[in-house]
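Office hours follow-up: a student asked to see two folded examples consecutively, so here they are.
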Amino acid sequence: MLTLLKAFVEADVNLKGTLYFAVNNEGRSSHECSWTLIEKLSPKPKFGLIVRGGGNRISVANRGRVDVVVHIRGKATHSSRPEEGLSAIEGANMVLNRIKKIKFTKIHPKLGGQHAVPYQLIFDPVAPHTLPEYARIKVDRRLLPSDDVDEAVDEIRRAIGDMRPWEVTVEKDVFMLPSVVDPESEIVRRLQKAIYSIDGEEAELVYGKGTYDAGGPTSIGIPTVMWGRPDFGTSLMGDDFVTLRGVEEEVKILGRMIIDMLS
């Protein structure tokens, strides 16, 4: 980003439109940083491009996600006298079984379906020979275009239902929205043109089943796609990296696209 700005200044490039570069430090799996950035901009952008490691593929769509948190409260007791308490382990097991029974039928032709997948489970207290009084489950509820976040949470709440004698509450946590951008939109066409000028062919379009930042600006009327030239580390818990050659080519492609759109 800095290399590109430096090149524009040194070449005295005259842009007729407005170009924004921003660093998004979002780390909570939400769109709060994106929305806060855009709120401060005037004029508002017409398009958005999120630059990330992407192996030269353009992501034009992705699913959304809401984290649903389920709290289960019982009564702690010694494991030798389970009848004197109300184990949160048993309550959590019942909740998991009820969530598993949810039937999803909505399918997007490119993005696939919805799901509700528990991915975190903690108990308290964690102590020797103690049945815990509290459990917390986090559920990954994947969203498709037109899904309502609150309705998705309510669906899980209804599926869990009455859990007495356990005390159970269901809460909406952080969420990210789906994003769908027309492959014929201007931002995609101009990016493909710049890529073609170097490669002699257009980049692959992808439809992600994950959830990313593009849903934030797209949801408020700024069509946003994601792309990155460099290959990158793909291991979930491994090292992050990008190739230097890819970074150099990325600067050229971005420069050509920006000049094409704004000069």
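And the second, which I mentioned at the end of office hours:
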Amino acid sequence: MAGIITLTTDFGLSDPYVGAMKGVILSVNAGARIVDITHLVGACNIVEGALRMAHACPYFPDGTVHIGVVDPGVGGRRRPILVETARHFFVGPDNGIFGPVIESGDVKRVIHLTEKRYFHEPVSATFHGRDIFSPVAARLCLGEPPSSFGPEIGDPATLDLPSPQRRGDEVRGVVLYIDSFGNYITNISREDISHLKGRAVEVRLGDAAIEGLAKTYSDVAPGELTALFGSTGLLEVAESGGDAFKTIREGSGAAVTVRPLP
């Protein structure tokens, strides 16, 4: 085990919730190394949380345990789960937040967390991040086998993320989320527009029309909009030295098109 536990939540930075989770982890496993991926996921935005976590997790060492808590259904019928992959473990609600991980095909097993002896008692109906996910993650880092925490299940929740659609040479996608710089992260990959390689293209988002693809944010003058493939491997719409969201004013789910210029 790497002894590393990451946290991805929508808890923000001003409330005590993240601190409480860390306190429980360290009470069980004082040697755990806790890494914050982000706590600024939009409130209850499961898709954003899933993608932000999925974009960061591959860079962690084998054996890392990732806790994801964007959990609007906490205390309801959704199950608490543990997902084991070839390299990592994921602990959190069964609401789709681990959808990209499950759909990667790298999953060894999924466990329904039912063994209450591993929980922090009393378990709050509104804070499973503290009382279930944190102590389970800490125990995993101490070497407790996944099978100790409950039975395997075969029907974990996934996300119904939209796929880019091609009509003729035009590719139509959507904005998945907007990062803290105001960059629009879309669902369009290089492969999705590989048929346009070597051709001049236009990227359109809302009323903004951007000619050509840049390699870096600084390829255009400050204040100008640009389109490029970012570090996630997905097409972004950004503003050099600025905030594209404040300029374009479109939200998550907005349509994005890439088409060849005449």
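Two things to take away from it. The longest helix spans residues 128-141. The chain has two domains: 4-149, 165-260.
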